[in-house]
Amino acid sequence: MSDNNRKVMDVYASPYVWNATTEAAGSVIAAMRQVLNDKIDKNEITNAFAAIRPPGHHASYSWITGFCFFNNVFIAVVQALLDYRKSTTTGAIERRSQPLISTNRLNGRTDLLRVLVVDWDLHSGDGSIRILEKLQTRGVLLALAISIY
Amino acid sequence: MDSAVYARCCSACYLQKAKRLFATRNAVVNGNVCGKPTEPFKGHYTLHDNNDKATSNQIKSVHENDLVEKIEAAQHYSEVEWVLLGVVIITVLTCFYLGREDSLLHCGVSMDVG
């Protein structure tokens, strides 16, 4: 199904949606930053869990469906790729001195983080798949675990 | 090894689930839940009350602009609806105050026809 005829399915917008979606995506970004910053600074937090609604893995770059508005995980993944880099000498994670401002700048770079996204649900994470196809970024791997169909 | 638990403020049921989940593992619950201070207890997990919001630019890095703008605009619908409701109420009250209820009837008929 193309993006054009699959814009909005199973989602209902209310005046509170924007705050809810931005807080949900912001939570994942904040969790990602805390873990990566603590890893770089050798502080105590080594992993994080984000308990958020609305969910995101059905949301593609141009459609919203399956109760998902924005793909929270991939927003955090892209933000991590833009803000952090892998040292070309040691392989360690570093903050970029100049964070990238566009996903266009990710193309062809050799210092990108390697990211594994594990998507576990009854349904396929179709939005995540489409975003990954569009990004065409090296180093991001999506693992789907589907229980029913 | 410590973990951070991020939860969207006001998703109270999820915070409770997270608390129960991590309580079985001697969780630490720090921070606020919907502005209400919670008692921290000892363990290896930290529950954050996260009020950080993703910016439009962060979302647009993945999603197309028109989708972001449409959903962003949805939060203003209620303000518009309240203004329209206010205009209708003021109009009705003014008509009754001036004894021109018949104008309301004409207006209603015109709207039905239109």
Number of helices of chain B: 5
* Low-pLDDT sequence parts of chain A: none
The CATH architecture designation of chain A is 3-Layer(aba) Sandwich
Give the rounded overall mean pLDDT of chain B.
64
Number of separate strands of chain B:
4
Span between N and C termini of chain A?
Answer: 17 Å
The biggest sheet of chain B, with number of strands, parallel, antiparallel or mixed sense and barrel status, is: 2 strands, parallel
Counted by DSSP, the helix tally of chain A is 3
Radius of gyration of chain A from CA coordinates: 16 Å
Helical content of chain B (DSSP H or I, runs of 4+)? 40-55%
Number of separate domains of chain B: 2
What pair of chains forms the biggest interface? Answer: A-B, 48 and 39 residues
Name the assembly state: heterodimer
- Derived from helix and strand composition plus strand pairing, the structural class of chain B reads alpha+beta
**What is the 3D shape of chain A?**
globular
Shape of chain B: elongated
The biggest beta sheet of chain A, please?
Answer: 2 strands, parallel
Order of helices and strands of chain B: EHEEEHHHH
Chart the SSEs and their pairings.
The complex is a heterodimer of chains A (149) and B (114).
Chain A lengths: L7 E2 L7 H25 L3 E7 L12 E2 L6 H12 E3 L6 E3 L19 E7 L4 H10 L4 E7 L3
Parallel strand pairs in A: 1-3, 6-7
Antiparallel strand pairs in A: 4-5
Chain B lengths: L1 E7 L3 H12 L8 E2 L2 E2 L7 E6 L5 H5 L4 H10 L2 H21 L3 H13 L1
Parallel strand pairs in B: 1-4
Antiparallel strand pairs in B: 2-3
